Amino acid sequence: MPSPVTECVVITFKPGVDLETSGTDSAQVWSELLATVAKQPGYQRSYWGHQLENPNIVLWLVDWDSLSAHQTFTSSPSYPGTIARLLPLTEHLHLHHFSPSVFPPRILGSAPVIEFATFYGIKAVD
């Protein structure tokens, strides 16, 4: 049986992009993106927030039933149009997946602040 995963999306938005003020174009694009992703088969929940040190950076964590569930969405006909609306608002976008030691990672929805670190080139510890 496939393992659930969390997709970690780090988005650097262009200065002045406002995701939270209702009625702005950028808030509408963001809201539509969140709604589209939430409708996908295998989607469980998501959390997002602005980095405290740089509010132009958003961390978006999306829980999926499996990596293949997310890949099915990214291969779907609706994906290119969905992402095409977001990209003009961004300077940089990076995503990767991980399997939390406790799933679902509910603390993400209740903690007032989280710190998220990604380490590359580290050998696994048994």
TrEMBL record:
Matches recorded under InterPro entries: ABM_dom (IPR007138), Dimeric_a/b-barrel (IPR011008)
Extent of the signal sequence: none
Residue ranges annotated for the ABM domain, each copy included: 27-79
Protein name: ABM domain-containing protein
Top-level taxonomy: Eukaryota, Fungi, Dikarya, Ascomycota, Pezizomycotina
